[in-house]
Amino acid sequence: MKKHNFSAGPSILSEYTIQKTAEAVLNFAGTGLSILEVSHRGKEFVAVCDEARAMIKEILAIPEDFEVVFLGGGASMQFCMAPYNFMEKKASFLDTGTWAGNAIKEGKFFGEVNVVASSKADNYTYIPKHYEVPKDSDYFYYCTNNTIFGTELHEDLHVGLPVIADMSSDIFSRPIDFTDYILIFAGAQKNLAPAGVTLAIVRKDALGKVSRPIPTMLSYKTHVDKESMFNTPPVLPIFSALQTLKYYKELGGVEAIQKMNKAKAELLYAEIDNNPFFKGTVTCKEDRSLMNICFVMNDGKEALEDEFAKFATSKGIVGIKGHRSVGGFRASCYNALPLESVQALVDCMREFAAAH
Amino acid sequence: MKKHNFSAGPSILSEYTIQKTAEAVLNFAGTGLSILEVSHRGKEFVAVCDEARAMIKEILAIPEDFEVVFLGGGASMQFCMAPYNFMEKKASFLDTGTWAGNAIKEGKFFGEVNVVASSKADNYTYIPKHYEVPKDSDYFYYCTNNTIFGTELHEDLHVGLPVIADMSSDIFSRPIDFTDYILIFAGAQKNLAPAGVTLAIVRKDALGKVSRPIPTMLSYKTHVDKESMFNTPPVLPIFSALQTLKYYKELGGVEAIQKMNKAKAELLYAEIDNNPFFKGTVTCKEDRSLMNICFVMNDGKEALEDEFAKFATSKGIVGIKGHRSVGGFRASCYNALPLESVQALVDCMREFAAAH
Question: Is A195 within 8 Å of B233 when comparing Cβ atoms?
Answer without folding.
Answer: yes
